[in-house]
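Query structure, 117 tokens:
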């Protein structure tokens, strides 16, 4: 008689590791897309990504990946206070978005990365 061996826990760990790896790769790709978009001269035109003055915004871009109870979460962004006004604009300045366009531009490649085996 054949013996069935259940390796469910091992399989779960392998899938989780692959998800973490793929999310890290996707976040790193997106971070690169965003850094590339913040490369023009300053001041930038309204609606265009912010130009480079000191390079601080571009250098501050980072990502993190974590395992949560719901699955795997990835974040890409910056801790610079002026990033939100640049991304969305203010009553005195038209937006210079750089995060959302980077995601939009890279979403097909990100989907490929996240679903790769």
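Result returned for the query:
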């Amino acid at each position: 008689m054949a013996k069935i061996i259940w390796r469910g826990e091992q399989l779960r760990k392998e899938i989780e590791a692959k998800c973490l790896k793929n999310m890290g790769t996707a976040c790193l790709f997106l971070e690169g897309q965003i850094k590339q978009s913040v490369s023009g001269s300053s001041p930038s035109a309204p609606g265009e990504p912010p130009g480079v003055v000191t390079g601080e915004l571009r250098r501050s871009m980072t990502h993190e990946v974590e395992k949560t109870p719901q699955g795997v979460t990835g974040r890409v962004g910056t801790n610079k206070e002026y990033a939100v006004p640049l991304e969305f604009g203010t009553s005195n300045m038209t937006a210079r978005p750089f995060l959302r366009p980077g995601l939009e531009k890279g979403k097909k490649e990100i989907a490929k990365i996240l679903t790769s085996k």
